[in-house]
Write a structure and sequence with these properties.
The chain is mostly helical. It contains 8 helices and no strands.
Length: 188
């Protein structure tokens, strides 16, 4: 008996030409990309990486993540690995820009002065002044304290920060405690 082909059903030839389904590794990388792309971009932009370069770095990180997951070369904490890779790419980028242009480290000055547009003018001014003061304090922090603060703001745990920055757990705790104390004093 001849099989009846339903008009809405795709012929076998068309079925075989469709793109193959994603592997579990691809699914995992896509999910991690969706989850971590913005925080990693914030981290890179806060370290004065131009947006176009930061976007390229993010793509390189997730390509490298995909390759490592395919080879099963990662441990359990992929988010920590992603931020560690972002930190390493940032260090390379910083060295490259230092050699090319002699740029100074610091937080992105373009992130200063962002105020709530619905607030009254006087509260907007106070908010902008407060933010400028706090950003000046952050820029004045030693680089390890800035890095610890940025990574902690992205939600990483002390242990992950220590691994990424190559510091001891106690050094991370002390750096964060000092940084937060200086910010609290400035915010009085």
């Amino acid at each position: 008996m001849k099989a009846i082909r339903m008009p809405w059903a795709a012929p076998a030839a068309v079925e075989s030409q469709r793109a193959p389904r994603q592997s579990p590794v691809e699914d995992e990388v896509v999910a991690l990309y969706d989850q971590l792309r913005v925080p990693v971009m914030r981290y890179l932009l806060a370290n004065r990486v131009p947006a176009a370069d930061a976007e390229e770095i993010v793509q390189e990180i997730f390509l490298l993540l995909f390759r490592n997951l395919q080879k099963e070369k990662l441990g359990v904490n992929t988010a920590g690995w992603v931020f560690g890779a972002a930190h390493n790419f940032w260090l390379k980028h910083r060295e490259k820009t230092r050699r090319e242009a002699g740029l100074v480290d610091g937080w992105d000055a373009g992130s200063e002065g962002v105020a709530d547009p619905t607030a009254r003018a006087d509260s907007m001014l106070l908010s902008a002044e407060r933010q400028q003061t706090l950003m000046a304090v952050v820029r004045a922090l030693p680089e390890p304290q800035q890095q610890c603060l940025q990574l902690r703001a992205e939600g990483l745990r002390y242990r992950e920060i220590a691994k990424i920055l190559g510091m001891s757990l106690g050094s991370v705790a002390n750096a964060l405690q000092s940084a937060l104390a200086r910010l609290a004093r400035a915010d009085r």
